[in-house]
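From the pipeline queue, job 12 of 40. The input is one protein chain; the requested action is below.

Action: predict structure.
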Amino acid sequence: MAIMTLELFKPATLAGMTLRNRIIRAATHESLADGSGAPGAAHEKLYKALAKGGAGAIITGYAGVQQDGKSSLANMLMINDDSLIPAYRKLTDAVHDHETPIILQIAHCGRQTRSAVTGMPTVAPSPLKDFIFNEERPHELSEGEIETIIGSFVAAAGRARKAGFDGVQLHLAHGYLLAEFLSSYTNRRRDRWGGPIANKFRIIAEILRRIRAEEGDYPVLVKINGFDHRRKGMRPLEAVEIARLLEASGCSAIEVSSGTVEEGLSIMRGPVFPSEALLASNFKFKSLPAPLKKVLAPLLRLTMPSPKPWRGYNLDAAKAIRQAVSIPVIAVGGLHTLENITSVLESGTADFISMSRPFVIEPNIVRKLQEGRHAASRCIECNYCAIMIEEYPLRCWFGKLPSKQPA
């Protein structure tokens, strides 16, 4: 284990990028962008802290490729217009000053948003309501609209390259639009965009093909679900087949996650459901009377438990995918201790690991692990950070609500 720990902190190559170690900051929505979706001084401060704190590479919070794919969470990054490039260039320059690669995650939220936020109809592969975002039935995308979305992802990758990003990551996980195409649960189409895996994968294949045609060997990573808990949703064997298709289509590396927003705390797990945080910040609950919230809080904890295990829950899927492809595989999900991390590499489960919540509480967590000051993250897995971003900029709450909340 000691030998593998040393290897963990040695420089490594990922998709042509040189990382100082094998620990990556996973994409994390920060709620810090301005009204146009541009990053600003707060992003620069956060990402510089991550770079100085030892992160091998930084993957940004998701950036929307077009307006109808914007998140309902506050202040989402956008990459849907050339006017945003200068702000991103300032951000990448600041991170590169610390010799750290930075990758832009690009996404379309599909049915997991609200027209009240985007100002446009909600769209999806099939017109199925989402359990969480159930204000409206999404519009089923037409052939022409799918072509537009493909073009938006390709254009976003081009803007990212011009802005100085070392690569992009396509968000194919967590129930967002591209994941909706891949899952039989959300994709009920009977045309060339639905049905067999090759058809459901077609939109991703086209995005990758066109990015390769326009941007050459520019690194294009993906984040996929190894599984979810939806009926007819993603299963490990199907994820392995998709991973093979990704490699054949020119994907540079695969990060393996799981779950959908509709499943509750499946993506980011913890011992107790953060009902107080949800009631304080979620658009459905925050305006309810205080007495009703007191009644609902324990009911939410009973009805929406986080599935077990709470640590290393994507490792089986990551290992299966790594055995099926030759491109690098990144494991994410509840990897909060040095022992967990080194065992992932030692066992051959993945080539790199990524973390989100440990970096929220301690942007310098990697340096602390490397210097022997920590053996584990201080994160208590309360998941308030994941819930409160609907109202507040990203921060660690350590299981406590603010004394004053927005009206």
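Job complete. The radius of gyration is 20 Å.
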